Description:
Elements: H1 3-29, E1 39-45, E2 49-50, E3 55-56, E4 60-67, H2 71-101, H3 109-125, H4 130-189, H5 197-214, E5 217-220, E6 226-230, E7 233-237, E8 240-241, E9 244-246, E10 254-256, H6 268-303, H7 309-315, H8 347-351, H9 369-375, H10 380-390, H11 393-397, H12 406-446, H13 450-484
Antiparallel strand pairs: 1-4, 2-3, 5-6, 6-7, 7-8, 9-10
Amino acid sequence: MSxxxxxxxxxxAIATHQVAMTITSQNIxxxxxxxxxxxxxxxxxxxxxxxxxxxxxxxxxxxxxxxxRNELLDTTFRRxxxxxxxxxxxxxxxxxxxxxxxxxxDGGLANSIDQFWNSWSDLSNSPGNTAAQSVxxxxxxxxxxxxxxxxxxxxxxxxxxxxxxxGVVGEINQLxxxxxxxxxxxxxxxxxxxxAPDLRDLRDRLGDQLSKLAGxxxxxxxxxxxxxxxxSMMLVDASNARQLQVGSGSALSINIVGDPxxxxxxxxxxxxxxxxxxTDLPPVKGSLNAFARGFVNGVNEYHASGxxxxxxxxxxxxxxxxxxxxxxxxxxxxxxxxxAGTIRLSAEVQANAAVIxxxxxxNAPGNNNVAIALSTLRDRTGMAALQTxxxxxxxxxxxxxxxxxxxxxxxxxxxxxxxxTADAMNQFTVFxxxxxxxxxxxTSVSGVSLDxxxxxLMRHQQAYTAATRLVKVADEMAQAIxxxx
Length: 485
């Protein structure tokens, strides 16, 4: 061994610890960067020099730079993050439906229905009173307007959810294309056998985003690349990315471009948007439509049999001559429009409130039986009377379960939405907690601890200083030999 060997060992030590301090500095600088994985220099003893009777070390070297990452913890985090995003999306959308119904409130449908029944009660106290008839018409118009408004807003929410899904799918396509491109860059960069930490971090950040949008799985492949799966379908294979599109059917769906078969399993935000439109909204819309149909047919059942001087002439053409006069035959609501989005007053009532009937006997101004019967529809007793009156037609024209009033039916709708909303909020709380816990576990491995990095920085600094001292010692040894000659 020579003094030159000592200097060579010192040179390697200086270079090695300089690299280590550079990597530590990089960690400190990126401590607050989301998705950054701390890096470590792989420092190992250099290949020793083998001599005839022994071998001697040749110093230290950096064999590579690796990042601290655990794939299992990544998988857990992405699963929980996808569930959290789905629960958050559903909670927000259901809260919007709950806010739309706005119960209990003075502007909600429940109050409009109560005011409608109250107006009939007032009319029963003053049969044929023009002011009371006008109030009944106004209250009926308010019920129709509220139902129309609910239907319009639910349709708008459906359309906005579809547009949002189209935007999410476009974002997924963009991210998968980037993922495939980075896969290729990593393959090239790591062809020499060393990791490319920064590129891998970028790819993992894309995987995190995709898991939130669609609940994807990021799976390492045997060829060294990483694949992206949505359900059992592979979206990204090495440098190839398959594009998604929103289906054209009435029900929301997502399929791979070129394959009309909808994807069976989609999570994250995209999956919850489809579930909301396809599963959560239809029962609400169906319940409101069922209410509107039953409301129109029930009110018309009584009103068409009533009498008013103004209504008699309008209904005369509908009488069967052999049976004689059978009520004015004027509907309160238009019988052709029985959905929540289309319910409206009949043309006759809209044109003239004087056709609104109070009694069930012709030429009996003080008779108030129709108004009383309609006012009692607010409760189950009145509905039971209506069922008895209609017989078998009750099931087809009203469709409510026996013993359920109009208020009960609507209350069940509101309660169902409230339960679903509370459940979605609870699910969000659970998955938010699980996501935070998974992130903490992942960060404990890949996150940067400033205290730890500063400690490492000082250790490498001390080793660097010691190496420079070794150079000085070698220089003193060489000087001593020169002084001897």
